[in-house]
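Crash report, auto-generated. Payload:
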Amino acid sequence: MGALGHYLEQEGVATTQVSLVREHTEALAPPRALWVPFMLGRPFGVPRHAEFQRNVLLAALRLLESDHGPVIEDYPHDAPYDDLGVEPEGLACPVSFPGRPSQGTLAEQLVAEVAQLSVWHDLAVRHRGRTTLGVTGLAIDALAGYIASWFTDSPPASFRTGLTDGAALKLACDELKAYYYEAKSVQPGRHGSAAIRHWFWHDTAAGHAFVALRTIAAQSMDPSMKPLAVQSLVPRAVDVSLQANATNQRSAP
Amino acid sequence: MVRLADLPGWERENLLKRVPTLPRFDGRPWVRGPALAARRVAIVTTAGLHVRGDRPFGSGAAGMDYRVIPGDVATEDLVMSHVSVNFDRSGFQADWNVAFPLDRLKELARDGSVGSAAAFHYSFMGAISPVTQYEPKARELAGLLKQDQVDAVLLSPV
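Recovered output after restart:
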């Protein structure tokens, strides 16, 4: 981000930026930066809070009126609680709250779970008026089937010409995770980002499937699968948590 | 980011170990301009955003290039294909403005706080290392921004 500031400014375009990691911005020393104490992924603080977002944006833009630089200013306000849950007024809530399927293989559980969540995802789309799905071009049942096929003896071919097997699987997994996140957000209750992440990785067949896919990727001879084995499938925070759980289980009497 | 001091040790170390790998820029470019109320503002994000149907980001050249986001893009048409799994996406899924504040920018233009919102905005994908690889495309982008009469860019990370 800071490098872009240098390059654009050198070309004669004034820039101001939001900084999420102050230490990185200090090292790059871009012309103007507003450091904000928000989580990665949320440079304007919190969703669905227009006034808070507007104040952050204005604070960053006002740095354009500084007399000289480089300047890094600290934003003084923390983000409000990130409640993603909704009270869907006027919307009929689904009556069932299914948990992770208990029967069948992991791949079968995944497919069943995706089907169970569809009513919630439909509700999320109605409530938000949008979905972030659609990068792969696959319908959700086809997406689940594609990922489930990786647990068979004959992994599926890439679903798009020019896309490697690893890149296709990466896009598919990210999109499936978005489906789960969007569906979960409209289930009753308060849902912060950390709670949804915990639910996905610990309480769903999909989360367990992703961890298993990482092992499959590590054993693959296909170089396009390597990023999935290393860092682009399971978040670092989840990896640390899973390793801690495994250690605790080994040391339990 | 939440303050480094508040993070678990492994995450703090992971962020700090990147500092020595970042380039040092000798120059201190500084472009002056009119008051904010007279500026035309574009958003350039590194969130890996693009219009649904555009090329997804990924490794290689497709990950280095920018994507064009028309100023009249509908909320239901903007998607994310950033390769990193180490930042929150639930906020963007709930409200794009938390990562791409286009609605907020248009509001500021309407109330006169800024001159206008650009006709086009742009997205790169962060997580490219070394960051100097952005240089050719960033300089190319500067030309497009000038053609749109943009004289202020808001750079936004994830």
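Post-recovery validation: Residues 2-74 of chain A form one domain.
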